[in-house]
Amino acid sequence: MTQEPGQHADGTDPSNTGGVDEPPHGGGAADSTESGAPDAAQQAVAGGRVGKLMSADEFSFADAVGGWRGFVESVAPGFVFVLAFLTVGGMRVPVIAAVATMVVLVVIRLIQRSSIQQALAGVVGVAIGAIWAWRTGEPEDYFVPGLWINAVYGIATLGTMVVRWPLVGIVWGLFQGDWKGWRDQPGQMRVMQRATAVLVVMYAFRLAVQLPLYLSDQVAALGTARLAMGVPLFALTLWVVWLMVRSAAPRPTPPDQPQPTQ
Fold first, then answer.
1. Which of 200-239 are b and which e, b meaning 16 or more Cβ less than 10 Å from the residue's Cβ?
2. pLDDT tens, residue by residue, 55-74
3. Per-residue pLDDT tens for 86-103?
4. What is the residue-wise DSSP string for 39-108?
């Protein structure tokens, strides 16, 4: 899942933000320790925002966007860029305004001595977009890196489906402590393929909407689409994936009922 300029995808998101939770303990640990890499990856997935979402009984949109502060830090640079373009126009003022906004967000975190991991992820996206636009002199080129990122992430995610190692299944398996056991279950395999396809559709949908706007130089419309199809669309996509994955999760075996005494 992908990082657009000023947004977290990863995500892209998303994806390496939020607090660190204690990794869950349970069955399947033997399979996850077949090598050091799967075990380390399992701890990374379970310890971050993805692990929190996957383990929750109810989906939290707040957690999906990194909390209110994460949401603000994700959309603020892009929002300021569009606002500056609509009020001033040109390329320099919107780009400078977006970069300045991101710098302010990082400085605030430094002053408060809070984690700057999430803010720094946004800095990278904003910086790449700003450099690209500054070199070409065209304001719409601020959004070019995000288009490329969506294309690359979409193709890579589709590739995991083609080789029958769907991305969603890998992430879910790492969290469950058995990073590949789900591939032996045809039902779970089908669900993981479909859930991964949802991510591919998200990337394709972004490109289908944003690429024509970029090619037609509709900067304000493109910026607005990027805001709407960034964190909000990513959170909605995660919710759909969460619903699908939960349907594939093994049902807990109910405890044996005590037999009535004669």
1. bebbeebbeebeebbeeeebbbbbbbbbebbbbebbebbe
2. 556 787 877 777 778 788 88
3. 999 889 999 999 999 999
4. HHHHHHHHHSHHHHHHH-SS--HHHHTTHHHHHHHHHHHHHHHHHHHHHT-SSHHHHHHHHHHHHHHHHH
